[in-house]
Amino acid sequence: MKKYKQNADFLYLGKALLAWYGIYGRDLPFRKTKDPYKIWICEIIFQQTRIQQGLDHYNKFIERFPDVASLAAAETDEVLLYWKGLGYYSRALNLQKAAVQIMTEFGGVFPDNYNNILSLRGVGPYTAAAISSICFGMHIPAVDGNFYRVLSRVFADDTDISHSSSFAYFSELALRLMPPGEAGTFNEAVMDLGSEICRPRNPLCDQCPLQKDCRAFQLGRTAEFPVKTKKTAVKELKLTYYFVRFGNEILIRRRAEDHIWKKLYEFPDEVPANLLPVVMETNTVYHKLSHRNLSIDFVDVFLEKRTEFEALARAGSYQIVTLEQSLLHSFPKPLENYIAAQVARP
Q1: Pairing label, strands 279-288, 249-254
Q2: What is the mean pLDDT of the chain?
Q3: What pLDDT was estimated at residue 281?
Q4: Which stretches of 181-327 are assigned E, i.e. beta strand?
Q5: pLDDT tens, position by position, 297-332
Q6: d(Cα 140, Cα 132) in Å, to the nearest integer?
Q7: pTM summary value
Q8: Which residues are known to be catalytic?
Q9: What are phi and psi of 237, to 5 degrees?
Q10: Which spans in the chain are helix H?
Q11: What one-character-per-residue DSSP string does 20-40 give?
Q12: 290 or 56, which is more confident?
């Protein structure tokens, strides 16, 4: 780990970056506002979603929930429905919980300082810094993966970003580059540089405004930075769902807050032993989450007696919906795909 002198003058790097951003910065709808609510929504959406993939979702979400009050008052099912397609649904649940928090703890007014923003449900140091700097001009770097990559390459810094201390270390380093009064713009410039130019693989170094000062480029070692030694353990998980049908109707229920896929809908995960003889088909699909590899068996069960179907619904507290109605509910992606395949069947 390198140590940089307290009086080291790296501001010229930040100014070069801002000059580049002034010409090449992306024209995005949420950059035309300083509304902290809208910046918050966009930061949460684009944590796990590429800009190109998430823009339509952002626009539709903001149109339906234009402010904190509308998000706090909405039915959770509707919030999840507008989040459909973005994945990581816990983000949507935390958004609504934070909206309620703003209504109850801050009088419906979005908090205007870093610590209060950080206290919101689902908001971490990066998001709090992004909102604080962009909307309220606070001199705070919004350190994320883009910052780690850009700074570690510029300085050929071998600080291991998997260590908890790396956030504070790179935050301090970023402050040396950040021109006074330009925190929000600087943070957005690093986001764009890391996303569009200083990419994880195949960086476009010939287009980078910091190329002549980039130590990793000069050494031909850009692929070696940032350094990350600790890998997240991936667990194997096997699930079984019974796709119980009577005609065009199926059984679904909402998951609880525990385990994966909180508050989303699912199919029955068990059926009485007397129904096993009517199992028609079993299909296995594989799905990867950030920390889990899933193997999911979908077991088709077709019932011929309505009384049997309704009794199973009552016993397991399931809802009875048609295949078409099920599309108005939010399911985990593998279950959503399975329904779509059944709807598409002739």
Answers
A1: unpaired
A2: 93
A3: 81
A4: 235-246, 249-254, 265-266, 279-288, 292-302, 319-322
A5: 999 999 999 999 999 999 999 999 999 999 899 999
A6: 7
A7: 0.86
A8: 43
A9: -140, 130
A10: 11-24, 36-45, 51-64, 68-73, 76-83, 90-105, 114-118, 125-136, 145-154, 166-177, 183-192, 215-219, 306-316, 323-326, 333-344
A11: HHHHH----GGGG---HHHHH
A12: 56
145: tokens are 């993966």
Residue 273 is given by DSSP the state G
User: What distance in Å separates the CA atoms of residue 285 and residue 287, rounded to the nearest whole number?
Assistant: 7
Alpha carbon of residue 330 to chain centroid: 16
Contact 270, 315 (CB under 8 A): no
Closest to 50 measured CA to CA, from 162, 191, 184 = 191
345: which 2 tokens?
Answer: 């069947």
Q: Which of 174-188, 276-290, 303-317 has the lowest mean pLDDT?
A: 276-290
The CA distances from residue 152 to 62, 64, 149, 186, in Å, are 35, 40, 5, 17
CA distances to 5, 12, 26, 149, 166 from 183, rounded to whole Å, are 21, 15, 17, 19, 20
Burial class (CB in 10 A: 0-12, 13-18, 19+), 58: buried
Q: Which of 161, 146, 154 shows the shortest CA–CA distance to 1?
A: 161
Chain segment 50-61, per-residue pLDDT in tens = 888 899 999 999
Q: Do 14 and 177 form a contact (C-beta atoms < 8 A)?
A: yes
| Nearest of 110, 99, 196 to residue 146 by alpha carbon | 196
Beta-carbon contacts of 22 under 8 Å, excluding residues fewer than 6 positions away, are none
Q: Rounded to whole angstroms, what are the CA distances from 128 to 43, 120, 194, 241? A: 10, 9, 19, 39
Give Cα separations from 134 to 37, 57, 114, 147, 187 (angstroms): 12, 22, 11, 16, 8
